[in-house]
Write a structure and sequence with these properties.
306 residues, alpha+beta, Phosphorylase Kinase, domain 1, Transferase(Phosphotransferase), domain 1, two-stranded antiparallel sheet, 10 helices, globular
């Protein structure tokens, strides 16, 4: 490898690593854009509103911030350093703000998916992005997203089969949409799926995603993800789109197990998606077409059963 290519590779690795900003430095900037980072006061109020024992329920890592005063920023101990909860000043809606390098692949993909007219496409189930705040002098950008829930099963228990399959269809459809635009997510999993509890599901975390040029076949070295297909166990990925298909199959299997559903017709669709040879896996579009053919065969009675 030449020094130039080695340097280029190192630069690419640097801009796609997770960043850990000093959040207080950007508090005023984000406030000027209409977003307020969570303070000790916000967190205390949340616990008082949601738990009978109020602030006594606070985790120890959060309690440490109480002595800093109600106006001090209060990070969520359950989130990585590049994420911070906040509020949209305009309407009081909760948001999650993610810090990324301003030249990262993630920002490129998010900017594409959240820019009109792409963001309004019915097949696009990317988490709604409210703003992109770029700080070029610090090589940083902040992705401001609506806060949806990662608790996919509501407290009332699993939904009926029809709604469950509708949720899976949104996952498949978004994968098709990404692939149509030469985007491979590369970390499709239940943990990267969220809901607004109004029938909408969204994909998050495009940290590993790649947008490829037409005809470009990417060989990714050092591949890592939540769900790793057999051909990538040595850390190399040669067909990113077939990696997504495999991960999508695992997501569907895990979702069935979590919700207690066994749908033989769905298992027939999933089986070829898990083929050890990626060339023998169907495309995401073929999976969606098979899924849509399956629904009428299940019948209304089964679709309405919990």
């Amino acid at each position: 490898m030449s020094p130039a290519s080695s340097s280029s590779s190192m630069d690419e690795e640097d801009v796609n690593c997770r960043v850990s900003p000093h959040w207080p430095d950007y508090r005023s900037l984000l406030l000027s854009k209409g977003f307020r980072l969570d303070t000790v006061r916000d967190v205390k109020q949340y616990y008082c509103d949601h738990f009978a024992d109020g602030v006594n329920r606070l985790p120890s890592s959060t309690r440490a911030h109480l002595s800093h005063g109600d106006d001090a920023l209060c990070p969520d101990a359950g989130l990585r350093d590049n994420l911070f909860r906040g509020t949209c000043i305009r309407n009081g809606a909760k948001v999650v703000i993610k810090a990324v390098h301003c030249r990262s692949r993630e920002l490129e993909v998010i900017r594409f998916l959240s820019t009109s007219p792409i963001r309004d496409h019915q097949m696009n189930h990317c988490i709604p992005v409210l703003d992109l705040v770029v700080v070029p002098d610090d090589d940083l950008a902040f992705i401001v997203m609506e806060e949806w829930s990662s608790q996919l099963i509501a407290d009332g228990g699993p939904c009926c089969l029809g709604l469950f399959l509708g949720a899976l269809r949104q996952c498949i459809e978004h994968t098709v949409f990404m692939h149509m635009h030469r985007i491979a997510h590369l970390d499709i999993s239940l943990r990267n799926l969220v809901t607004d509890y109004n029938g909408r599901y969204a994909c998050i975390d495009y940290e590993l995603s790649r947008r490829l040029e037409l005809g470009q076949r990417a060989s990714i070295v050092g591949f890592r993800a939540t769900e790793v297909p057999p051909e990538c166990e040595n850390g190399e990925c040669r067909d990113p789109f077939k990696v997504d298909v495999w991960a999508l199959a695992v997501l569907m299997l895990r979702a069935c197990k979590m919700c207690g559903y066994c749908v033989p017709e769905l298992l027939e669709i999933i089986k070829p998606m898990l083929n050890e040879n990626p060339d023998d896996r169907p495309t995401a579009l073929a999976v969606l077409k098979a899924f849509d053919r399956m629904i009428p065969l299940i019948g209304d009675h089964r679709l309405q059963v919990r």
